[in-house]
Amino acid sequence: METKLTKEQESELCRLLGNVKLRFLYKATVHGHTAAVFHQLCDRQGPTLTIGYNSSGCIFGGYTTKDFDVTGQYVQDDKAFLFSYNGRNIVKYPVTNITHSLYQVGSTGPYFGNDLIFLPNNTRTVQSTPGNFYNFNAVEMHGNNLTLTECEVFQVAEGSDILQKPWRSIIWKAEKRKELIEFIKQYKPTISSVSRAKVLLIGPVGAGKSSFFNSINSIFRGHVTSQAISGSSSTSLSTQFRTYSVKAGRDGKPLPILMCDTMGLEEATGAGVDIDDVISILRGHMPDRHQFHPAVPLQPEAHGYRRSPELQDKIHCVAYVIDGCKVSIMSAKMEAKLSAIRWKINRLGIPQLVLMTKVDEACPDVADDLKDIYISQYIRTKAQEVSVRLGVPLSCVLPVKNYSEELELDLSTDILLLTALVQMLRCTDNYFDDISDVHD
Questions:
Q1: Are 138 and 115 in contact (CB under 8 A)?
Q2: pTM for the whole thing?
Q3: Which of 61, 243, 246, 373 is the most exposed place for a label (fewest CB within 10 A)?
């Protein structure tokens, strides 16, 4: 996620707070203008900075050292203040009655005294009543424009989010990129009847399944491509089951891996890819380019249905694709759907790993330099959360950045993506080893 603050404004706010680090917790246009989501992401996070923006160009907000919560109580904080930008300068409005610095209530967003209330009744507005516990000029602060175009909340952390020691080792050199590419090109399945590893990409709508394939394809084509349909939408842009082959160059031979893309997972019953369709894919029954119908899973009578699939038709590895920005707000319904799918995959003995995408949007340090990904405490925390929610070992959670807005390839991006692809092939080897053991 990117803040609407300029670098200069962000630096000035950090200096005002004592050279601290701002870490994104909530962004209304990404997470929703609802009190419930705000509290889910921001409660009990310690010191926070809230920033509102309106169409008049005003930037204003509040700071508190105390936790947001839903206790229904006023909180005392002698360090709390409201602020606004006046040109390039920050105007600070300290709390005048510290016993009513913050009100912890579940029906709104950040609630500073009774003076400045964000997202009341789940609206894209702010309530402004100066003079109760904070003294400020409403025109000076927000120009009497109470409609928000954005609301951002940051955790205010002392020091750096950078770990002393990387939590995972990786080499960021061109030689490593070349080594990974050669490993992938030279890979051969350990079972002679299978010519290529077959990996299924599955995850919620918008997580980046199709973008992952496009990114891998870009690396081997030597430029950014977009063969698979991808983009932003509330419903899945992928409506067919697609089996994608990657070529080593424009006229090169196909790589020894196939990536299968599906319709995205959705919370609602009868929406998104059906779990029965996922099972048909895993077992090799579903033909390429099958058109998904969420309310009607694939039937044996369907055109192209494979009644007796060979091992090469089946899925050899499953990669869940999860948006790193939305891990903490994954709904109970989505978590339950993923759990049901995982249980069925476990019964089939297919290895699983997780691609945690959009790491650059989730962490400002990583956005500034992708090589900071394995020294970022925030990314490690998110990876641990994914591990717990999906029930996979942390070693199977792979942070990646897909190509989305770039026109040229980037070494660090390539190395992360290629490392993930190599791990998929290693998981596939584990699957083939288990198959061989059963038949020996």
A1: no
A2: 0.71
A3: 243
